[in-house]
# Entry
Amino acid sequence: MLTGVTADARLAWSGNQRDPNLRNFMETRMRQGEARGILVLGGINMDLVTVSDRFPNPGETVVGNRFLTYAGGKGANQAVAAARMGGQVFMVGRVGTDGFGGQLLEALENSGVDVSGVGRSDTSSGIAVINVDSSGQNQIVQVLGANDTCGEEEYQQVKRLLPYCATVLLQLEVSMALSMRVAETAADQGKTVILDPGPVRQMPEGLLSRCTIATPNETEAEALAGFPVNDRRSATDAAAALLDRGVRCAIITLGEQGAYAATAAGANFQAAFPVAAVDSVGAGDAFNGGLAVALTEGRELAEAVKLASAVGGLSVTRTGAQEAMPTRDEVDDFLKRHEG
# Structure
């Protein structure tokens, strides 16, 4: 079995006429059948979390209920999510020489992520200050720290690891120039490149066209499309706008409303699974990690989005980011319960 070799071709919807460009791409991937890993280039942060009944208004102080410290960062979260789902995952990024750096590396290793591509900078590790309210919604302030020092060394690590990988996960927590360079290199080698365009930052022109899939949430989709995105209709318009900018597949995640996925060949809406949300901080990262694993396994896009939605849905039933990522057995059991 050639695991992961058909992932990009799966973007053409089953039952619809397949895009010949994607079909040719599939044939190239089949000739690269040994590549089955997932490479994640992205942020590695320590999350400093406060929990309160509600968010403070500007200038207001509210009394919180709990303070928690979690290993996080969008890149690291996605790496852990993919590893717990059974993926062979390689992390590329940077941590600081502070006390958080060693803890962050240990957390990745304990989840089965290869950290040989993670360097250390003589600065603070990245941190995220996260406020969570009683409904499970969150507000985040991020300090990039060591993440902002990623550059040539990380690019060389990516080049070293790419031959072992079918899929690359990118976010916007490291330098845009590095992300663009990695997207170009991965695309030239026929890899499936998944871009999570968060946190919201100005992207270089052409980045989307180098990516196979973009997975913005509502806020990120609004920043990219230029209009509010808060329901299925506006998600449809936003996905069309992203396709016009060159990405092959746009997946707009709408939280408890579900996820809308579109390619030039068709579209599909995946309803959210009913869960009791506790903490949504890692939901998008869980979704992306699950999506990467599903596509690397060669699943059709609709099936991959369903699996990713289950991973994201389970993650919000627990507190924390990496600690909330479910295992493959938990996701499989969850899907069985909701299909019965």
Remarks:
- Confidence is low (pLDDT under 50) at residues 1-32.
- Residues 301-315 form the longest helix (15 residues).
